[in-house]
Amino acid sequence: MAAGVNEDSPKGFVFAVTAYSLWGFLPLYMKALAHIPPAEVVLHRVIWAVPVAAAVLIWQGRTATLRAALGSPRTLAMGAVTAALISLNWGIYVWAIGSGHALDAALGYYINPLFSIFLGAVILREKLGAAQWLAIALAAGAVGVLTWENGSLPVAAVGLTLSWGAYAYFKKSLPIGPNQGFLLEVLLLLGPAILYFLWLTAQGQSHFFTGAAIDGWLLLGCGVVTAVPLLFYANGAKLLRLSTIGILQYIAPTMIFLTAIFLFGEPFGPAERIAFPMIWAALVIYTAALWRATRH
User: Is 0.90 surpassed by the pTM of this model?
Assistant: First the structure.
């Protein structure tokens, strides 16, 4: 993220808060598309994100790195892995919001940073302190409580955590900047997305300006709501300390949580009343440990 940054930039703070706030409002947008199959929503997120991301890259004058990446089989292979993971993450998210599981989406994004440090310990053999292990144990316990009470694993929460955690891990291996990397990913997904769009159109199943006009405009806008927050985040993270990003990243899941409860009316039962405070306690412990480590 922002490794090597010793102080926060006001511009970076504005970029990051804007990104997380936009992600926090995203459920309202996706709920308006709940009647459209998630796969169709994802294909439009891909197709219309390409011109937005390309315009930003051209404006920044950073297309040379992307051209080099397109000519590197190794980079293309790595990009294909991250592209598959981010499209899976988008699909789970769209399904969760549309099917009344926004609370699970919030839970998944709360757990994400804890899962990332767990991956670092398991795969990269990074040494974790007692506070970090306690935070991970509390998060695992919260998932266990929900699974026990509801009789099934919170699939959306676990799916979002695993897909985003794996995406973040492999994304670090892409030898290009975050903006170039995002455009590379959507370019790799563009071919399959267009083919699927053409198939839906031929079958008469496409919602893109074939029924209610609002559906077409909302699908067209998927590119903006997908690319803009990611680009804000990518540029903000470079100008902030890791500890600051660590705190700001809870803006989005908190907004999703409040939206699920107060706007979508999703049930907040006994299991959730136990699990979410466990998660919040884990995040307080994790953030305090991150803050101390960054200060040292």
Answer: no
